[in-house]
Specification:
This protein is of the alpha+beta class and 259 residues long. The chain has helices at residues 78-98, 141-154, 169-194, 225-234; strands at 3-6, 9-12, 19-23, 31-41, 64-75, 106-118, 124-140, 158-165, 199-207, 248-258. The chain folds into 2 domains: 3-60 and 168-212 and 249-258, no CATH class; 64-165, Protein of unknown function (DUF541), domain 2 (Alpha-Beta Plaits), CATH 3.30.70. Strands 3-4-10-9 form a 4-stranded antiparallel β-sheet, with helices on one face. Strands 6-7-5-8 form a 4-stranded antiparallel β-sheet. The two termini are 17 Å apart.
């Protein structure tokens, strides 16, 4: 929307969403033009300002995965429950080391030991349950399926998520930022021309997007015995995971001088 200032008064003079023209001198020819726009690089849903989708440019293909899964155990007493959980966990950690996963890429967390109550029988304790969560990062996409299958055979019985990520995400995001600024300039030039002005230099730019991590969650596994059966079927070749492609979007606001 363009605004022309005359002294202390301002009047609205046309409509163009997301823009502002401030007339700061007597001749009414200098001021600022503000534009906010967004842009995305991706194979699906890439947004280039207000100019529609342009898929296929700078496609972001995930090449690493982060796997979050856990060992769940039940037993009649707390000591046995903890011991069984630790045995399965040790087997999983040994498998990961055998697969060449660095210790720095493996994190155990979410450790919890809790009683199991019979609420229909006076809140009587009937046993104990324990869960230990394991997060495995920096797994090559081509190895992720086999690692999941073998981990289930080793003792994992609950898979929470698989996140697909791009190791070169920063480079792709920086390209998206450049295109966002280019798109902002194109819009600013069009609005300046429509207002009878000439676009000058960019005087300010602000990034609105945070460079969020590109990711995708795979939910092809379910917990419990069904997961064990699936892992047995997948043993050998490993389960095929389809990471697809991810969108990398950037949004900026830019202020340009006008003459």
């Amino acid at each position: 929307m363009f605004y022309e200032k005359n002294g202390d008064d301002a009047k609205q003079d046309g409509s163009s969403a997301g823009s502002r023209h401030d007339d700061n001198d007597v001749g009414g020819r200098s001021g600022r033009l503000y534009v906010r726009t967004g842009i995305g690089d991706g194979a699906v849903g890439g947004k280039y300002g207000d100019y529609g989708d342009e898929p296929g440019e700078n496609q972001a293909e995930p090449d690493i995965a982060e796997i979050t899964y856990s060992v769940y155990s039940q037993a009649a007493d707390a000591s046995t429950c903890q011991s069984e959980n630790q045995t399965d966990l040790d087997a999983v950690l040994a498998l990961l080391k055998e697969k060449g996963i660095a210790d720095t890429s493996v994190q155990t967390s979410g450790l919890g030991l809790n009683p199991i109550y019979d609420w229909d029988n006076g809140k009587k304790i009937t046993g104990y349950e324990m869960t230990t969560e394991v997060v495995v990062s920096d797994v090559a996409i081509e190895d992720a399926g086999a690692i999941i299958s073998d981990s289930v055979n080793a003792g994992i019985n609950s898979i929470d998520s698989v996140q697909y990520q791009c190791s070169n995400f920063d480079e792709i995001y920086q390209e998206a930022l450049k295109k966002a600024i280019e798109s902002a300039r194109v819009k600013a030039e069009a609005m300046a021309e429509a207002g009878g002005c000439k676009l000058g230099t960019m005087t300010n730019v602000q990034e609105y997007s945070s460079g969020q991590q590109a990711r995708y969650y795979d939910t092809s596994y379910s917990s419990g015995m069904a997961m064990k059966e699936m892992a047995m079927e997948d043993a050998g070749a490993g389960r095929n995971l389809m990471p697809g492609q991810v969108d990398v979007e950037a949004e900026v606001s830019a202020t340009f001088s006008i003459q």
